[in-house]
Amino acid sequence: MINFEEELKRFSPIPEVNQAEEAIYSNDLKDISDIVLQMTQDLRNTGSILDNAVSVRARRR
Question: Where are the domains of the chain?
């Protein structure tokens, strides 16, 4: 039978996983809620969601 207490004592995190976690959490990636929030703020400020979308698209070119 597996002794979980003994297994936990021998556990050590893998360095690559820790590095990957740091890279993931340090990036400021937008999810759908961030995008919707930005769109509603733009709508309140300018009256048009398209104004910001056009300016973002122009900056990417």
Answer: 4-60
